[in-house]
Amino acid sequence: MKRNHMMLFIGAALIALLMGSCDTLFTNQFQTLGLGQVSYQMIQDAVAGGTGAIIAQSGLEEGGISPSFLAAATATEDTADEVKAVLQATVNNPAAPPEEKQAAQVLIIEIELEMNGGNDLIDNIVGAIGTIDFNNFSLSNSSDLASLLSSLFPAKGAKVLPEGWDQAQIAAVLDGIANSEGRFSDLAQFLVAGNYSVPGIDAARLAQVGTIANILSRIGHATYPTIGAALADLIDDVTGFAGPGTFPYDTYIQVPSSLMDDIKADPELRSLFGAAGLLDLLDSLGA
User: Fold this and answer.
1) CB burial class (10 A; 0-12, 13-18, 19+) of residue 277?
2) Where are the domains of the chain?
3) Contacts for 169-172 with beta carbons within 8 Å, 24 or more apart?
4) Sign (positive or negative) of CA dihedral 81, 226, 133, 6
5) Rounded distance, CA 96 to CA 115, Å?
6) What is the pLDDT of residues 175-218, one digit of tens each?
7) Measured at the alpha carbon of residue 232, what is the angle toward residues 226 and 234, in degrees to the nearest 5?
8) Closest to 109 measured CA to CA, from 145, 58, 147, 152
9) N or C end of the chain: smaller count of CB under 10 Å?
10) How far is CA 218 from CA 11, 37, 180, 234, 258, in A?
């Protein structure tokens, strides 16, 4: 297996390791205790009340994002846009306290992941990567990669897309995650400035998703307009590839040989991993 391709799979394995070692996306205490049941009207009232009211409804300050908040905040595209606009104004406000910026940026990230189907993809990565026998996995065998890629895109429940996946939808989801890399960079700065002061922020989860976004943002796609378009085309073509020879991955994507070194040295990722208490794990990558 070429080293650059191996770097991509090592990155995927890192994500699986991290996601398997941490809690699930949302704290279950809200459902267990029957608290934080946020309605659509409560979201509308919170939007009118500003970022503080939205944060209060989200549950972040009590230990985690309430599932009912996320459901209500993403009930429609218009609702999600209204909530994000208020939160973004706080992110952009130089005078806003770092802890408020932290909470606002986290909520924007989670709302966008819920809306574009990113959560569906991310939640499937652990199970999919866990099925790989890296000792026997071969890029020369297109069925190996085809099986892996297919498992990442099962029937989905994204708010803005119909059931099932087509190539354009896969590209949109991957681009959405890749394009969120800047949000994670900003969040890392807010975490440093505010000393990670919001108790409900799951820094481990954010480090995981930030790693995915970072990896996607570093993969080359010279003949395609976006990394999502390149990977969507690769996924479509590799599933029907019958040979002869090895599938020509390099015509779709170009994985830097320095990928893991770049990930380990990335200052924003180091801040996210540090906030999660996982910096030693990041440093041990490839050791």
Assistant:
1) exposed
2) 3-283
3) 169/117, 170/228, 170/231, 170/232, 170/235, 171/226, 171/228, 171/229, 171/231, 171/232, 172/116, 172/117, 172/228
4) negative
5) 26
6) 988 888 888 888 888 877 767 667 778 888 888 888 888 888 88
7) 105
8) 58
9) C
10) 12, 39, 13, 17, 10
CB half-sphere exposure, 182, CA atoms < 13 A: 4
Contact 221, 8 (CB under 8 A): no
Which is nearest to 200 in space by CA: 103, 84, 74? 103
Confidence (pTM):
0.77
Look-up: residue for tokens 């599938």? Answer: 247
Residue 166 to residue 233: CA distance in whole angstroms: 10
Q: Which residues of 183-205 are buried (b: 16+ CB within 10 A; e: fewer)?
A: bbbbbbbbbbebebebebbbbbb
Tokens encoding 271: 């801040």
Positive or negative CA dihedral for 46, 49, 51, 53? negative
pLDDT digits (tens, 9 = 90+) for 130-168: 666 656 666 555 566 566 665 666 555 555 555 566 788
100 in Cβ contact with 90 (< 8 Å) = yes
